Backbone:
């Protein structure tokens, strides 16, 4: 699987988030704010993503519609196979202020926490 | 090493404090909120980070409590030449330079170096891991992020307004994060793992994260991380960081729910749990425990959110804990390095330190080149090292630390080393382990004297130049070398021979008027010239009193022929009078050498005989108890003219005499041999020197007494001596001068009838006149001259001068004086005595015994008409010496004035 560049990934994220085939105009709209691209630039990127095999392009009426060929989780898993991700355990909490440490809690813990919270609230 | 030690110290102290706090937490939690611990951790992290700083120095009471500055007791410096008594020169320290030879040695790595290396490597690894990890994680989170939806952003804005935030970080959604979080120290960004939270749940989440943002919690975490990195070896610090991060969340929760009722608190707790629930890909089981902050933390947070409110902030507790930590730290910090005398362990430590190649080299330099004032470049510039010559290594000095005192950063060590100069001890001062100075009281004194000598030389050059109208100045002056070439101890008093080298740069070499003790090298005046290097001889007695005994030149000693030991012991220590090895007694002259060669004067081959002879011949004293040897010296015969010397003592009545006798080695080239004998070269009398035989026989100096003058009158009114004063003479070598003296009333009466007849026959037609007849033979003339003018050479009188005899021979032909061939005699025949009348005014004797006689003479002579004319009437002055027979030896007779 080929690797996505930052801009490409951003486009893919927009496509994945849509959950249905999207138009180039949709992508442009979703990227507004972080990447204010002109339509031709977006079209170029989209066609490259088609070439790379990430998107399929369908012609519907006057415009092209794009749908993902590779799912978000698949690509994420592929990218996460890198040596660095493995080294850092695919998570790094040293310098972030997170709400909780999700990696340290499993499903059984969750049940226990639920129970504990109920006990506290029941007081 | 110091760095590691300090780090270790603080690591242990803070780590222990962290452990104590963690253990006490359940107890403290009942009364205080997490907020005070949040503060404690921060300050502790600061302590850990600032561990290498010298805290002890920053605490004022400590400095005040220190004992008075340590002074190693040194005797007061007394330099007899210097007005600056007791001035302490602090020589600038040489920065210890790594020596090429030492560097090659590749000493075994000491343990401390290994430990320090390990520690630093750990620190590096820790920071590299976290730096890269943070960068990588942030990049990944951002890369996988997209803009949040309208709804989410709406809630975000509402929360911002509610919290009164004017500026907030951007909010994005990233599938690379598994919990809502804030990332980025400088450009913070709020990341949500996804969307679709309930509005209230989302609001709580955002409030929590914005609180982190507002409190700059990422910087707090960075501080903890850095402290952890520096103290990576300490598990207690890891524990501390974990506790601190837990408290960070607790206090954040506290801030979120502050002032809210139970319902809202429950809602917040539910929101927390729900958001964990919502997390995608929640694991079936946690694979390892290395992910901290799981179930237990969440439970504690729930307890905290829903639990007792109104707990105290705990500022006082915070302050107390911090104070205790600092106190303990200071106490521990002081303990291994208390001011005052160093402990044996510390001394051993210093011993090890001064044995390092750099320190060893430094101490060696300071010991040998007492006044090593020049930089290496300066020396190279003045005296460039010829190519191909490598610097010589230095001897092994084996410095030993005898004692030491510490005062703050300053350590003063008393060091003893083995040096060629045999200077045993010195005081090394170090500040923060860097040598600052090395000195001994002797160095101080020597240095002062050396500088003074150089300055004096410069002054005399300047004043010399001024006399020639030249404006001389010295732009630079340096003592380039000053070292102790020899030292010796006599009766507890040690003498040091210091050689001094200095250079002075004149403003113009043309301004220098050269004389004596200086030469030029590369435009600098240097001391490397005849009469050798300047020498300073110092002594230190048992009380530590330092005295500059003498200043001389190295070649002076060579000329006199003494060894330093002989010279210092006899001249300086005993105060003996000496005149140089070759100027002793018996006198070195040809008759003596010939006599010795021919097997006579064998007493000179035995030092006891020489000493006894000397005393009897020079002083007329017989050393009845003999002479005893006190000390012997050995010398190099090639450079000292003798191979051995002996110091002897003899008791002579009330006096004690000490003599130095040298065994002379004297090469006589014409005989192709080396003569050896003993010679007295020095003497010292106690309590005082007696008179020599010569002195005893000497007559008093000054005006002669009336009686003496009367005797002189009688002497010269005797016909035999009357003529001696008649005519002036100064140059007695000219024989003609004697004629006037001799040919007057002198001679032996002619008693032999045959002789008288022959005389009558030859000169008076057979009829001898009835007058006195005196005859002068050659023997008589010579005898008379010797009698009255001394032997040849004694007073410069030539009694056997061929000039004189030629003058007499001329008289034969002139026939003005009768001469008979057969008797070889001149005859004087006259009837009257023609005595001169002298009036003696006074006479004076000088130190060498020459008497000046002042008198007036009236000399009359018959004129042609047979009357007496006054020839002269003159004040005269005669010089004469009293002979052993009581007669006078004439030196001169001249018109006075």
Residues:
């Amino acid at each position: 699987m080929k690797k996505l560049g930052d801009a490409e990934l951003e486009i893919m994220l927009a496509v994945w988030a849509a959950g249905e085939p999207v138009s180039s105009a949709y992508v442009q709209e979703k990227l507004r704010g972080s990447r204010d691209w002109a339509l031709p630039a977006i079209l170029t990127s989209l066609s490259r993503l088609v070439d790379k095999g990430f998107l399929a392009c369908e012609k519907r009426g006057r415009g092209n519609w794009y749908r993902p060929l590779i799912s978000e989780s698949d690509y994420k898993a592929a990218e996460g196979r890198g040596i660095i991700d493995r080294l850092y355990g695919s998570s790094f909490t040293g310098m972030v202020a997170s709400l909780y440490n999700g990696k340290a809690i499993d499903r059984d813990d969750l049940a226990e926490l639920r129970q504990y919270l109920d006990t506290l609230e029941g007081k | 090493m110091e760095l590691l030690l300090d780090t270790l110290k603080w690591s242990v102290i803070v780590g222990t404090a962290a452990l104590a706090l963690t253990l006490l937490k359940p107890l403290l939690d009942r009364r205080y909120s997490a907020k005070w611990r949040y503060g404690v951790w921060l300050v502790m992290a600061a302590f850990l980070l600032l561990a290498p700083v010298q805290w002890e120095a920053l605490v004022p009471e400590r400095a005040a409590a220190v004992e008075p500055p340590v002074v190693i007791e040194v005797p007061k410096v007394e330099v007899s030449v210097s007005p600056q008594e007791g001035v302490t020169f602090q020589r600038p320290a040489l920065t210890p330079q790594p020596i090429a030879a030492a560097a090659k040695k590749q000493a075994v790595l000491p343990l401390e170096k290994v430990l320090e290396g390990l520690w630093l490597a750990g620190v590096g690894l820790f920071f590299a891991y976290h730096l890269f990890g943070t960068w990588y994680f942030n990049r990944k989170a951002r890369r996988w992020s997209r803009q949040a939806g309208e709804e989410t952003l709406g809630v975000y804005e509402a929360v911002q307004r509610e919290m009164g935030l004017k500026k907030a970080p951007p909010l994005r959604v990233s599938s690379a994060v598994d919990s809502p979080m804030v990332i980025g120290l400088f450009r913070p960004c709020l990341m949500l793992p996804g969307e679709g939270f309930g509005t209230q749940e989302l609001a709580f989440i955002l409030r929590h994260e914005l609180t982190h943002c507002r409190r700059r919690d990422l910087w707090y975490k960075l501080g903890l991380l850095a402290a952890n990195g520096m103290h990576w070896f300490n598990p207690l610090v890891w524990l501390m960081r974990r506790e601190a991060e837990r408290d960070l969340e607790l206090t954040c929760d506290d801030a979120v729910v502050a002032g809210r009722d139970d319902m809202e608190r429950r809602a917040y707790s539910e929101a927390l749990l729900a958001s964990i629930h919502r997390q995608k890909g929640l694991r079936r089981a946690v694979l390892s425990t290395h992910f901290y902050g799981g179930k237990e933390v969440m439970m504690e947070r729930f307890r905290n959110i829903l639990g007792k409110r109104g707990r105290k902030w705990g500022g006082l507790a915070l302050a107390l804990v911090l104070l205790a930590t600092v106190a303990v730290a200071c106490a521990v910090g002081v303990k291994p390095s208390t001011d005052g005398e160093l402990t044996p362990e510390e001394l051993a430590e210093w011993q090890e330190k001064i044995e390092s190649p750099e320190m060893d080299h430094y101490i060696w330099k300071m010991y040998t080149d007492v006044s090593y004032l020049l930089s290496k470049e300066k020396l190279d510039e003045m005296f460039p090292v010829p190519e191909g010559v490598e610097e010589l290594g230095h001897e092994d000095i084996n410095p030993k630390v005898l004692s030491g005192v510490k005062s703050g950063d300053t350590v003063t060590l008393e060091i003893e080393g083995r040096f060629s100069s045999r200077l045993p001890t010195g005081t090394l001062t170090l500040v923060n382990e860097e040598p600052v100075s090395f000195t001994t009281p002797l160095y101080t004194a020597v240095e002062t004297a050396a500088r003074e000598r150089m300055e004096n030389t410069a002054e005399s050059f300047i004043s010399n130049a001024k006399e020639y109208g030249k404006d001389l100045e010295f732009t630079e002056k340096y003592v380039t070398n000053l070292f102790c070439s020899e030292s010796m101890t006599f009766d507890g008093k040690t003498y040091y021979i210091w050689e001094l080298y200095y250079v002075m740069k004149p403003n113009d070499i043309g301004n220098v008027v050269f004389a004596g003790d200086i030469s030029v090298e590369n435009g600098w005046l240097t001391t490397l010239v005849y009469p050798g290097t300047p020498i300073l001889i110092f002594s230190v007695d048992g009380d530590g009193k330092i005295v500059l005994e003498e200043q001389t030149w190295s070649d002076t000693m060579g000329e006199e022929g003494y060894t330093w030991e002989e010279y210092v012991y006899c001249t300086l220590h005993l105060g003996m009078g000496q005149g140089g090895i070759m100027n002793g007694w018996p006198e070195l002259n040809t008759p003596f050498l010939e006599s010795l060669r021919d097997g006579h004067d064998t007493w000179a081959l035995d030092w006891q005989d020489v000493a006894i002879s000397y005393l009897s011949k020079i002083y007329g004293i017989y050393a009845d108890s003999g002479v005893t040897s006190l000390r012997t010296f050995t010398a190099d015969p090639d450079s000292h003219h003798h191979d051995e010397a002996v110091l002897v003592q003899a008791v002579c009545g009330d006096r004690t005499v000490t003599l130095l006798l040298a065994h002379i080695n004297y090469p006589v080239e014409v005989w192709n041999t080396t003569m050896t004998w003993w010679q007295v070269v020095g003497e010292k009398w106690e309590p005082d020197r007696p008179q020599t035989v010569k002195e005893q026989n000497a007559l008093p100096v000054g005006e002669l007494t009336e009686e003496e003058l009367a005797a002189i009158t009688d002497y010269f009114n005797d016909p035999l001596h009357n003529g001696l004063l008649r005519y002036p003479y100064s140059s007695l070598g000219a024989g003609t001068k004697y004629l006037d003296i001799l040919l007057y009333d002198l001679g032996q009466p002619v008693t032999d009838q045959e002789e008288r007849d022959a005389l009558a026959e030859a000169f008076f037609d057979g009829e001898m006149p009835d007058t006195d007849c005196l005859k002068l033979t050659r023997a008589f003339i010579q005898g008379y001259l010797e009698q009255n003018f001394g032997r040849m050479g004694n007073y410069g009188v030539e009694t056997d001068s061929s000039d004189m005899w030629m003058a007499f021979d001329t008289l034969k032909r002139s026939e003005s004086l009768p001469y008979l061939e057969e008797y070889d005699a001149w005859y004087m025949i006259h009837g009257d005595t023609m005595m001169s009348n002298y009036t003696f005014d006074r006479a004076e004797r000088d130190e060498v015994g020459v008497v000046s006689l002042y008198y007036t003479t009236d000399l009359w002579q018959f004129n042609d008409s047979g009357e007496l004319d006054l020839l002269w009437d003159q004040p005269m002055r005669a010089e004469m010496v009293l002979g052993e027979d009581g007669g006078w030896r004439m030196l001169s007779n001249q018109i006075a004035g």
